[in-house]
Amino acid sequence: MHRFAPALAISATALVMLTACSGSPSPSAPSASAIVSAFEDAGITITDPRDNTDKGWCEADQFDCDQYFTTEEVTVIIGPSAEAVARLTAGDMSSAYYVAEDGSVALSFLAQGTPEEARAPIVEALEAYLAQ
User: Fold this and answer.
1) Residue 86 is part of which domain span?
2) What secondary structure letter does DSSP report for 25?
3) In 17, 74, 94, 98, which residue has its Cα 20 to 30 A from 88's Cα atom?
4) How far apart (Å, rounded) are the C-alpha atoms in residues 22 and 128?
5) Is residue 71, in this structure, part of any structural domain at all?
6) Residues 67 and 53: beta-carbon distance below 8 Å
């Protein structure tokens, strides 16, 4: 074995680990904009959809996300992992969030103050989209 082989193996392992933890959305992660389109396809009125990902929302300390898409009815947050989404939605305001059954997406109704009865169709549309 070449004397540099162990160092190369360690470097390759570290690179794989860093790539896995880089915060980039996984190839199978849903798109926040596609989810918002699914809401509209389900007949839900969606007002002023906007992608706030590049406006620094995902860099804020309390958010660990890959995508942050806001409307006047709901905010769709795509996390890098189910654990990140769970951390985001934990705490005092957890009742203002919904986490998808697969853990990949959080819906926030906090800023919008969306009433409970208006949340149900949004949640149902999300789960139907993710089940496809």
Assistant:
1) 23-131
2) P
3) 17
4) 29
5) yes
6) yes
d(CA 9, CA 15): 10
Beta bridge partners of 107: 76, 98
Q: Is the pLDDT of residue 16 over 70?
A: no
pLDDT digit string, tens, across residues 47-87: 999 998 888 777 765 667 889 999 999 999 998 888 888 88
Q: Mean pLDDT across the chain, nearest whole number?
A: 78
Please, how many CA atoms are within 13 Å of residue 129, restricted to the half-sphere of its CB?
23
Residue at 13 is within a domain: no
| Alpha helix segments (H runs only) across 1-132 | 5-20, 32-41, 82-89, 116-131
98 phi and psi angles, rounded to 5 deg? -130, 130
Q: How many domains does the chain have?
A: 1
What pLDDT is stored for residue 42 in this prediction?
96
